[in-house]
What we know:
Number of helices: 4
Distance between the termini: 29 Å
Largest sheet: 4 strands, parallel
Order of helices and strands: EHEHEHEH
Amino acid sequence: MSRFCTYANPDRITPLFQQELDELNENTVGQIIDAGHNAALVPCNDLSLEQVLQIVDAADAVLVMGGEDVEPSLYGRTSAYPGGGHHELAADRNHVAAIQHAIATRTPLLGICRGLRLLKRCLGRHLDSAPGECRCSPQHG
């Protein structure tokens, strides 16, 4: 049985958006568990960097899921932009650290939506779309 840790952004800025994220996160964890694995959501805002790295070390795989906009300063943009969303710099830094540590330790890693954008940033790629263009929702494909 594999252990997955799933990183979710616990923003509480828009109640409906947060409700959608909570539903997506719970469904994703449920599917992983139904497939016979252990899974846990990791609230990156509430943890120290050391705690995040310990969780990655204990995991067989890491899944970084959707959420609010990636903090633009992490990819060389200003935080003020048209249609700008909510940012959680502490959580974003922990997500980046988790991704970099998973890459360094060769821990299997998957990014979905926002998680893929963070993974691209960690691999030195530019984020092509403007912040706020990709927000996960139940209708997001």
